[in-house]
Write a structure and sequence with these properties.
Length: 401
């Protein structure tokens, strides 16, 4: 049995030998035009709890931030309170979207120093916020476009295990208080558990540059690689490489457009994102895809429409793969999968269920993926063509194909 002191010694040793050992996705920060209204949207449609707030009532004169939680997912929605705040510039250029994918580490200052020594560019230098309950130290490193990875370490009441149990996020936040949607969401959970992966879109020819950046700066490794033969239709294509932290806890696929007869979804994203790379989607894990998708649909979440013809061929493909590798067949109800429009794929490790929302705002940029894994650690390679065809129908409606 490992005692607390032994655990501390292990983590201290790990921190010294590997400053960039990543513990968790600390939070994902969105810059939004109106944090209060965005909080209502994500609470009502995706079932998030509006847990905490930092605004004028807590002494924050520059910005308002809402902490939303579900399972081990923490979203921070931030809007500026004056015209010169960086969130206001960001929203003006890109619309609402992800600014910061923050990562928990043992020692933020040492992790930052290592990343900078590895060739990273500083977004902001280490700073510590503290009160009599504990500290939160953070430092930022720039990645693709204007996206940032904050490196976060926590002590006292603000340690991550305490935050996961409902403790305060950091100094300057307070509990949100009574909120009808929170009670509704507790009684009708959507079942989203944690961030499975976070996908970035970059310009043509830049994928390998950012793959090397993650290898060198954050010391990630290549996990999967898909080329235009894997991800293409008659009209469009893309290339993708998946980067993973050393413990495979955090995965960051990087996409770039590939030449095609018409415009790919990646190029459409770039066109509407001020020709700037950024986060295309967050994949949120659930243990029960059918329940989650059904609940989200009932709440009004707008998912991509999968053609019925997809289900005429998918089961032969999936079952053949599972049988080849000695796995049981898909246990979920096949008719319900079809009725809910869920995609299914299999590989040598098992199978997965996934479905993608339409863009979460008026610009065709950020969206969510809802994913459940039954052994498979891949990304739905067998679904790429069906998915792209569904995306192309939406692009055509928008006049962007």
């Amino acid at each position: 049995m490992t005692t607390a002191s032994t655990t501390d010694q292990l983590t201290d040793a790990q921190a010294k030998s590997d400053p960039l050992h990543l513990i968790d996705v600390d939070h994902v920060r969105f810059y939004v035009g109106n944090a209060k209204q965005a909080a209502y949207f994500y609470a009502s449609t995706f079932g998030f709890q509006v847990e905490e707030i930092s605004d004028l009532t807590t002494g924050s004169r520059e910005e308002a931030s809402y902490l939303l939680t579900q399972g081990n997912i923490r979203l921070v929605l931030t809007t500026g309170l004056h015209k010169d705040h960086p969130a206001q510039r960001h929203v003006n250029l890109y619309g609402d979207g992800v600014k910061d994918v923050a990562l928990t580490v043992f020692d933020a200052e040492k992790a930052y120093e290592r990343a900078i020594a590895n060739g990273g560019e500083s977004a902001y230098e280490p700073r510590t916020i503290k009160d009599d309950k504990g500290t939160v130290t953070m430092a930022g490193v720039k990645t693709y476009g204007e996206t940032v990875h904050s490196l976060i370490s926590r002590t006292g009441d603000y340690a991550l295990p305490n935050v996961k149990k409902g403790g305060l996020f950091m100094p300057g936040f307070r509990k949100f208080g009574t909120f009808a949607l929170n009670e509704l969401n507790k009684k009708n959970p959507c079942g989203l558990k944690f961030v499975d992966h976070c996908v970035g879109n970059v310009e043509l020819g830049k994928m390998n540059y950012w793959v090397e950046w993650y290898e060198n700066v954050l010391e990630f490794k290549l996990f999967k690689h898909f080329d235009d033969k894997d991800i293409s239709t008659d009209y469009s294509a893309l290339m993708s490489k998946v980067m993973a932290s050393g413990n495979h806890l955090i995965k960051m696929p990087i996409n770039e457009p590939a030449p095609g007869k018409k415009k790919s979804q990646i190029q459409e994203y770039l066109d509407w994102h001020h020709d700037t790379p950024g986060v295309q989607h967050l994949a949120l894990r659930t243990d029960d895809e059918l329940h989650s998708v059904n609940e989200l649909r009932n709440r009004g979440v707008d998912f991509l429409e999968i053609p019925q013809s997809y289900y005429e061929i998918v089961w032969d493909r999936v079952n053949k793969t599972l049988q080849q590798h000695g796995h049981d067949s898909v246990k979920e109800d096949h008719e319900k999968i079809r009725d809910l429009g869920i995609l299914v794929d299999a590989d040598d490790e098992g199978y997965l269920l996934q479905l993608f929302t339409k863009p979460l705002q008026d610009r065709p940029t950020l969206f969510f993926e809802i994913i459940s894994r039954r052994g498979s650690q891949s990304f739905g390679k067998g679904n790429f063509k069906a998915l792209f065809q569904a995306l192309e129908l939406e692009q055509e409606k928008r006049g962007n194909l």
